[in-house]
Design a protein that fits this description.
401 residues, alpha+beta, Cytochrome p450, 5-stranded mixed β-sheet, 3-stranded antiparallel β-sheet, 52% helix
Length: 401
């Protein structure tokens, strides 16, 4: 498949030939079906992630009319209220203020304190898979781990944790290209239900604080400044959605990559502790969980000799950038010991993923538990991909031990 077509199942399964063609022939191109400018090369994507002439939003500088864009559908307001107060879709000064306050609560020390819990959960999931002789690695290991970790971190009671994954799946459906009316309706409903649930949890923590992240967010202050309730709700939802989807897809995509590269899998099995840190980074690069990241053009810019006007939207192709031979030696080869690996899977600039340390911790513990518990883990049949392109992952990955 050498043509960019994000609604094609064939392209979603094998996008890298199309990316190579874009990088070589049209590194910056206008894609009519979505009205976006595709940017394919690593150097350009990396630079634009840091360029303040682009933004995740434009409403801090322009009205919708001034920017030449229609206002969002009022029926989608609950989704946009939730999404627009999260760090991922804010620009300075709001982004600066909220990230500073959130960082006071979501600290490296808090992440590190979760290590025993993450290791225990990962081992329990791996042991369960082994005891059953195998199964679907996505539903048995990849999905439960990040949900359990974020639930533990937020202090969500055990009986309520089954609610989180469906809410996350419905909300993130809006991040795909040209989402349908049905997708939007599900996202709105999930936004209302998840927000209401978190508001109730926040009220409980205000009267009875704990050691969880919600309690820490309530207490995070700088002078008289503190997070509003909506900012806390949006932060919690973002931590689940962004962290969960990335971790699930890196786990599933990564194991599929290992099964297709048996030499590298054998190498990893023979040197688990030493190789895991670089292996996780390489698996995130080689089959990137978030294929596209979008930005609005706030001022006219020139990229690779092409002028992109103010009011346009650029689609930064992370999956393509992470396979760019101008930056990675032999980029289509999976090398679990790759030392020079400036992948952009976690983004760059002010929107660099706040949860990157937690994602890395979860991935190292998950892969480590499976490699130790199931050293002979093998694939039952070739998997199928879910239909989404932006957040790209497997529907199932059937394995046996």
């Amino acid at each position: 498949m050498d043509t960019f077509d994000p609604w094609s199942a064939e392209f979603v399964a094998h996008p890298y030939e199309a990316y190579a063609r874009l990088r070589e022939h049209t590194p910056v191109s206008y894609y009519e079906p979505t009205g976006q400018w595709l940017v394919a090369r690593h150097a350009d994507v990396s630079a634009l992630l840091r360029d303040r002439r682009l933004g995740r939003t434009y409403t801090h500088r322009y009205t919708h009319e001034e920017f030449g864009r229609p206002a969002p559908d009022p029926a989608h307001e609950p989704f946009h209220t939730l999404n627009d107060h999260g760090l991922l879709d804010l620009e300075a000064p709001d982004h600066t203020r909220i990230r500073r306050l959130v960082s006071k609560a979501f600290t490296p020390r808090m992440v590190e304190s979760l290590r025993p819990t993450v290791a225990r959960l990962a081992d329990e999931l791996a042991r369960g898979l082994v005891e059953d002789g195998g199964g679907d690695l996505i539903s048995r290991v990849a999905e439960p781990l990040p949900v359990a970790v974020i639930a533990e971190m937020l202090g969500v009671p055990e009986p309520d944790r089954h609610l989180l994954r469906p809410w996350s799946a419905d909300i993130t459906g809006m991040f795909e290209l040209n989402p349908s009316a049905q997708t939007a309706a599900r996202a709105v409903r999930a936004s209302v239900e998840f927000s209401d649930y978190l508001r109730a949890l926040i009220r409980e923590r205000r009267t009875a604080p704990g050691q969880d992240l919600i309690s820490a967010l309530i207490q995070a202050q700088e002078g008289a400044d503190a997070l509003s309730e909506q900012e806390m709700v949006s932060t919690c939802v973002l931590l689940l959605n962004a962290g969960h989807e990335a971790t699930v897809n890196t786990t599933g995509n990564g194991w599929w990559a290992l099964f297709r590269n048996p030499g590298e899998l054998a190498r990893l099995r023979g040197s688990v502790d030493e190789l895991l840190p670089t292996a996780v980074e390489e698996l995130m690069r080689w089959d990137t969980p978030l294929q596209m990241f979008e930005r609005w053009v706030l001022e006219d810019i020139e990229v690779a000799g092409t002028t992109i006007p103010r009011g346009a939207e650029v689609a930064l192709l992370f999956g393509s950038a992470n396979r760019d031979p101008a930056r990675f030696a032999d980029p289509d080869r999976l090398d679990l010991g790759r030392a020079d690996n400036p992948h952009i899977t976690f983004g760059a600039g002010i929107h660099f993923c706040l949860g990157a340390p937690l994602a890395r911790l979860e991935l190292v513990e998950s892969y480590g538990a499976l490699l130790r518990r199931a050293p002979g883990l093998r694939l039952v049949r070739e998997p199928e991909w879910r239909p989404g392109y932006v957040i790209r992952g497997l529907a199932q990955l059937q394995v046996e031990v």
